[in-house]
Amino acid sequence: MTRWMQGNLFSANNLLTLIMILALNGCSSRSKPAPVVDVQGSLPLSQRLKNSVSGTEYIVKKGETLYSIAWRADVDIRTLANINNIKAPYNIYPQQKLMLTKGKLKLTKSKINDKLRSQKKKDSNTPKQKVIKKPIAQKKKQEYGKNIAVQKSSDEVQRHTAFSQKIRKWRWPAKGKVIHNFSTAKQGNKGIDIAGRRGDSVKATADGKVVYAGDALQGYGKLVIVKHNEDYLSAYAHNDHILVKEQQVVKAGQVIAKMGDTDAERVMLHFEVRFRGKSVNPMKYLPK
After folding, report:
1. What is the structure's pLDDT at 30?
2. What does the mean pLDDT of the chain come to?
3. Partner of 270 at 20 to 30 A CA spacing, among 4, 13, 39, 162?
């Protein structure tokens, strides 16, 4: 073999060795697997799970509403309000402590019976006092002998009748292709994702009232939640900007936001429907 051929063979071997070293270094540079990204957003799934509320107590943060906390805890707003003795319109404030369960408030049946027995025993040892009967007051009568009827205020009547109507028709919240469907899996998609372009209109799916509008729920981006009646809520996530305010009444088909990619991996609308606090498949309500 000539000296020229030997030199070329040596150069080729060196080049091959260099390629193999670079390939091995490229494979070993990623020591950890890529983070799992949820279809609802660009955050790793492990971080999105931290956004959910669990446990027995919760401290309210700035920008949150009772509806947004109930949404994160996956419970009905009425259940959360009753546990904490909060009346409509469910006003809360930062640093307020909320109970998420009735755990500390429940008494076992045996404890209740023991308490009743001890109370009866205490009452039996207490000397009875003479009861003085008072004459029964007669009902005040109007002129012409008619009883005075206490009329309910118009506000009270409106509270009982508000949101009592059924949702007769649901509308699509945006135009576009459904790229992710609803899933019943534990870590599955709690709604549907609709693809679109930045600035596309996001519309209310039915008549209702805005109960949350903000970006305090990490992983949902700029989010709008609409209350339709005492049973149904709908949510519109990842908006570029929001066009409505909390407590604003909206009509079906009204533009409430513009589509974007806040806390998402792409421009899209994440749309959810909740029935009494639980996620349901929006496709069962939307027209075909």
Report:
1. 42
2. 75
3. 162
